[in-house]
Design a protein that fits this description.
The protein has a single domain, classed as Pectate Lyase C-like (3 Solenoid). It has 200 residues and is mostly loops. The chain is elongated. The chain is 7% helix and 0% strand.
């Protein structure tokens, strides 16, 4: 289901991590992180190349602006995308355990079947995004905006959605089991969800 382009090992002596896309090193041993971030922008925005199925695990991409980026089926686990502009991005089937998307712009992004377990989405703006069948178990989305989002069959169990705005969201068959929804705005949500042991 999740396939990344052929992975190479980091060339740093003794490191067992996979190298980042188009690099010889992993995020921890990248020699010029800022230059790498700039290169990613150039690939996505200027040259129009796709980055589907690539390894960006742990990469420091804070504040990157790559709206409409094609990142489907990529590995974003542990990546730092705080404050990133990913509006309208294709993030379907991404593997993104513990990715940091604090304050990011995910308006209209496609996150179908994304694995976002333990992700940080605090303060993110995700209005109109699609999270169909996404894994959001243990995610933190305090104060995030999910207005008009589609959470069909998603799994935000044990997630912290306190003070989040889910106005008008589709929650049909979503599993909010043991989630924290204290102070969340649920005005106009559509569908029936599992709120077993959820805190409201």
């Amino acid at each position: 289901m999740y396939y990344f382009a052929t992975l190479r090992s980091c060339r740093h002596p003794g490191c067992a991590n996979a190298a980042l896309h188009a690099s010889e090193h992993c995020a921890a041993h990248l020699e010029e992180p800022k230059a790498y971030r700039k290169w990613i922008v150039e690939m996505v925005v200027h040259s129009g190349r796709l980055l589907e199925k690539v390894n960006l695990e742990g990469a420091d991409l804070r504040g990157i602006a790559i709206p409409l980026a094609k990142l489907a089926e990529s590995n974003l686990s542990g990546a730092l995308l705080e404050g990133a502009d990913l509006e309208g991005a294709d993030l379907r089937r991404v593997m993104a355990f513990r990715v940091n998307l604090r304050g990011a712009n995910l308006r209209g992004a496609r996150c179908d079947l994304a694995v976002l377990g333990g992700a940080i989405l605090d303060g993110a703006v995700c209005d109109g995004a699609v999270f169909k069948r996404a894994n959001l178990v243990g995610a933190s989305a305090v104060g995030a905006s999910f207005r008009q989002c589609d959470f069909y069959y998603s799994r935000p169990g044990n997630a912290d959605f306190s003070r989040a705005d889910l106005s008008g969201a589709v929650i049909q068959r979503a599993i909010f089991r043991a989630a924290d929804l204290r102070g969340a705005i649920l005005t106009g949500v559509r569908g029936t969800a599992n709120f077993e042991r959820a805190r409201t």
